[in-house]
Design goal:
The protein is α/β, with parallel strands linked by helices. The protein has four domains: 7-222, Class II aldolase/adducin N-terminal domain (L-fuculose-1-phosphate Aldolase, 3-Layer(aba) Sandwich); 241-397, L-fuculose-1-phosphate Aldolase (3-Layer(aba) Sandwich); 411-587 and 622-647, Rossmann fold, CATH 3.40.50.720; 589-621. Helices cover 42% and strands 14% of the residues. The protein is built from 24 helices and 18 strands. The strands form three sheets. It has a seven-stranded mixed sheet, sandwiched between helices. The protein has a seven-stranded parallel sheet with strand order 14-13-12-15-16-17-18, with helices on both faces. It is elongated and about 95 Å long. The structure holds zinc ion. Zinc ion binds at residues 130, 132, 165, 193-194, 290.
Length: 657
């Protein structure tokens, strides 16, 4: 592990808080130090308040901020004197502590200070850095972990036995510090939790953290516990879509809401999930209680979700009576599943949550494997982990954020998604919380969005094999399929029947009709397993109820597609799948309608472009966003009792009416 300090970069941050931002970000860049919002840092600064009085302010990481991307506003300014006075109390409940932290800040708009604020306050150094470094967690999760830490660091670190984060931990740290700290002390190791470093300036505190963790890594190397066993390459090519969708349906039922299930494809986790001794090494507990909120205490081995739920409920009942307050059981669905064939699966309420679970568990695997090589992984007792899982503050954090968006935990697939109506449908569904698989023959589809809830797959919508592959990939990424938006279609140049060649006709039918039939047929078993019922939206055309001359192939294909959707509604109603059709008209903000084409069509009718765009009863322009909003609404609760509907979105058209 190397210091990332760079004098030139550091010069851009010219004050104490700026340098705190800089080195916090340096820590945040290394996932073996902090992962997804873990860890916290602080700096103590003398300031003059509005009354002209001098006071010392502790700037400590605010909740909701990630060290990797923290800004100055991410640090909460709390009066140090008050924190030190609190530290002298005999006891302080979590809600009281949060109240004191919030009411003694000097900026009303600042985030809630870290629950480790009092701990930071009691350490008599200007800068304090705290991480959950993998190497430290690995060593302290073994038999005799404390002795190993003493052997590595001698009197350079204070050792604190495990105590749950909060006021009691702050007190325990202050006590251990008073007893053990000496002139050589540069850090503090919290067993089964992480490590603190401190110093007089930002660089010293940061570089002590790096040096301390580096020594732990070298210790693991000397003990032959650093290099992980070489994982086997992933060779499996069997389709998993149906098994995954089935498993997701049961996980979602256990959770009481649709969940995302993400399959990992890296050799490390796949090899781990197939180990013969998995039961022995994976069923002890997490690497640090800090992870338990995301991953739950134990992964599910295999696919018996119902047995997991029974065990989880029993675990709750066995440990809850000892908890300080009355607790409510969290949903009992697993968050990590290890299956010999399916590999590692990560479960989350959103695609982002599933990615976080995946990352955390990948680090857990490394910690377990190294701790095993060091003499045996020993997690904390179940009661300690339970106390964190049902910790008031953590539960409050989980409850934050209000009502989730309507498609949270659900998965949509949109064809023809790189532009126009398809692209607008992707945006509308993402905005309402769905994870979206976008298909298009245009390679730009893979770059449409860079976010964990979007997955673009290059796919020819007329090719059944490519469609099968895209469904397989989409289900491996998100776990299933709830909503299907059939939008891909081609419109050849206007041509009258007398001039229409069979090749053009067949090409239009292949994409607009055959491809849609193939996709619907292949998607049916997945939609059938959607926790909230499957939904299909077919993008038809005004040409179905009101065809125009010169568009025989297009109109006939869309009419047949509409009829296909009606039959699907008849056949799939008993599976809880709704199928509805939209008939848009004159949507001009799509790829085919360039400024020139628009101008020439308008001129053809003797109209201005504006008049041409709004030549409908309502005299309004219809955009692809309007169509997409309606497509999303058709998937939502407003249309929960509607199937086989055909809804125009055309500004009103006499011929359709
Ligand atoms: Zn911590």
């Amino acid at each position: 592990m190397k210091s990332l300090w760079n004098d030139e970069q550091a010069r851009e941050y010219d004050d104490d808080l700026g340098l705190r931002v800089y080195t916090s970000r340096l820590l945040g860049q290394d996932p073996s130090l902090v992962l997804h919002g873990g860890g916290n840092t602080s700096v103590k600064i003398r300031e003059t308040n509005i009354l002209g009085q001098e006071e010392t302010i502790l700037y400590v990481k605010g909740s909701g901020w990630d060290l990797a991307s923290i800004e100055r506003e991410g640090f909460s300014p709390v009066r140090l004197d008050h924190l030190l006075a609190l530290a002298r109390l005999e006891s302080l409940s979590d809600p009281q502590m949060v109240n004191e932290l919030k009411t003694h800040m000097t900026r009303a708009s600042a985030p809630t200070p870290s629950v480790e604020a009092i701990l930071h306050a009691t350490l008599p150094y200007k800068y304090v850095d705290h991480t959950h470094a993998d190497a430290i967690v690995t060593i302290t999760n073994t038999e005799g972990g404390a002795d190993r830490i003493r052997e590595i660091y001698g009197d350079e670190v204070v050792i604190v036995p495990y105590v749950m984060p909060g006021f009691d931990l702050a007190r325990a740290c202050a006590r251990c510090f008073a007893e053990q700290a000496g002139p050589r002390t540069i850090g503090m190791v919290l067993l089964n939790h992480g490590i603190f470093s401190f110093g007089d300036d930002a660089r010293q505190s940061y570089e002590r953290m790096i040096a301390l963790v580096d020594r732990a890594e070298h210790y693991l190397q000397r003990q032959g516990a650093w290099d992980l066993p070489a994982p086997e390459a992933v060779t499996d090519v069997h389709p998993h879509a149906l098994e995954l969708a089935e498993l997701r349906a049961r996980v979602s039922e256990a959770a009481g809401r649709p969940m995302i299930v993400r399959q990992s494809r890296d050799p490390l986790s796949t090899t781990f999930a197939a180990r013969d001794d998995l039961e022995a090494i994976s069923q002890q507990g997490p690497a640090t209680p800090d992870h338990v909120i995301r991953t739950k205490r134990l992964p599910l081995l295999g696919r018996d979700v119902e047995a997991y739920v029974r065990a989880y409920t029993a675990y709750f009942e066995a440990h809850a009576p000892h908890a300080k307050d009355e607790k409510t059981m969290l949903d009992p669905a697993p968050r990590v599943i290890l299956d010999r064939e399916l590999g590692q699966l990560s479960v989350g309420k959103t695609a982002r949550d599933a990615v976080i679970v995946e990352d955390i568990y990948r680090h857990t695997i490394e910690v377990i494997l190294r701790a095993e090589a060091l003499g045996g992984f020993r997690a904390l007792p179940a009661q300690d982990i339970f106390d964190v899982e049902y910790w008031d503050l953590e539960q409050a954090k989980l409850r934050q954020g209000g009502k989730p968006p309507q498609f949270s935990g659900e998965i949509a697939l949109v064809t023809g998604a790189a532009s126009g109506i398809g692209k607008a449908c992707v945006d509308a569904l993402l905005a309402q919380g769905a994870a979206v698989v976008g298909l298009d023959v245009n390679p730009a589809i893979t770059e449409l969005h860079a976010r964990p809830d979007y997955y673009g797959v290059v796919c020819d919508a007329a090719d059944p094999e490519q469609l099968a592959n895209a469904l397989e990939l989409g289900v491996r990424r998100f776990g299933g399929l709830d909503m299907l938006v059939i939008n891909a279609g081609i419109f050849p140049g206007g041509r009258r029947i007398a001039e229409l060649d069979l090749a053009t006709w067949r090409k239009v039918m292949a994409v607009n009709l055959d491809g849609a039939m193939s996709l619907m047929s292949q998607a049916h078993p997945l939609l059938k397993r959607a926790p909230g019922g499957g939904r299909v939206v077919v993008i038809g055309s005004k040409n179905v109820p009101a065809p125009g001359p010169g568009a025989a192939a297009y109109s006939a294909s869309k009419a047949a597609l509409t009829q296909l959707a009606r039959v699907a509604a008849l056949e799939w109603g008993s599976d809880g799948i709704r199928v509805n059709v939209l008939h848009p008209d004159a949507v001009f903000d799509t790829g085919i309608w360039t400024e020139e084409v628009l101008a020439s069509r308008a001129a053809h009718y003797g109209m201005t472009v504006e008049e041409y765009k709004t030549k409908n009863l309502l005299r309004t322009e219809v955009s692809s966003r309007d169509v997409a909003a309606l497509a999303a609404a058709l998937c939502g609760p407003l249309f929960a009792k509607t199937t086989a509907a055909q809804v125009p979105v055309d500004g009103g058209n006499e011929r359709v009416i």
